[in-house]
Amino acid sequence: MRIAFIDSGIGMLSTAAAVRAARPDADLVLSMDPDHMPWGVHAPEAIVGRVLAGARAALDASGTAEDPAAAPDAIVVPCNTASVHGLTSLRAAFEPRIPVVGTVPPIKPAVGRGGPVAVWSTVATSRSRYQQSLIEEFGQGVEVVPVPCPGLAEAVESADPGAVDAAIAHATERTPPETSAVVLGCTHYDLIEEPISEALEGRAELFTAAGAVAAQTLRRLGVPPAPSLPLTGTVTVLASGRPAMLPEAALAYAPGQALTRVPQP
């Protein structure tokens, strides 16, 4: 079983690690795009191009030209921005042969806990019609407050503790004090759950998408979780299509550390 992950940077790590924990036998292909990151600053059509390029690089790395049977069994997009703009094109290109799984901010389960709910996301996503439509669809009468987090994803990507703390403080100040749940609407934020929770003084439950995306991936593949299987799966890393190692910043986070302990092909 081979699963490809497409993202501009290390925001994919939490989802990839969740899949690794559920299926230690799966081969993972982590297709990052450091040459063009962050994707959020590009026009939608450019983001579509980068997402498709990342997927094709993952297929090439799997040796599909020589052996079509080696193609990934699933393509996962653990990035909200890439999912918004690229899923339709990815599915048109690869489904039904290869299922494509996207990422949606977990607003619905957060609202189910009660409110008020804050949605932490990038500035662009906070302003997007996409996020507003999710709030309208799943809000169910609960107060849901968008909280833009300027610089937070970039700080996580660079593993700069000072910048991370400053960006978290900025977002915390803009989160209503009565908030009972915070949706982490960017997968980069999953990597810093602990400092976010500490900044919020534990008053709000955090909701992330990684576990749900991992579970949906296995459902699309028609396989159950099997966390007790031997660790036989490998990890392949691509940097804008080039063979690479995980970036050094990935080692600052538990999911990155876990993935570095996986055999390389």
UniProtKB/TrEMBL annotation:
* One GO term of the biological process aspect: peptidoglycan biosynthetic process
Q: Name one Pfam family in it.
A: Asp_Glu_race
Keyword DNA repair present in the record's keywords: the answer is no
Q: For this UniProt record, give its keywords in alphabetical order, as a comma-separated list.
A: Isomerase
Membrane-spanning residues where? none
Write out the GO MF terms: glutamate racemase activity
- State if Zinc is listed as a keyword: no
UniProt xrefs under InterPro entries: Asp/Glu/hydantoin_racemase (IPR015942), Asp/Glu_race (IPR001920), Asp/Glu_racemase_AS_1 (IPR018187)
Q: What is this protein called?
A: Glutamate racemase
Q: Which organism is it from?
A: Streptomonospora alba
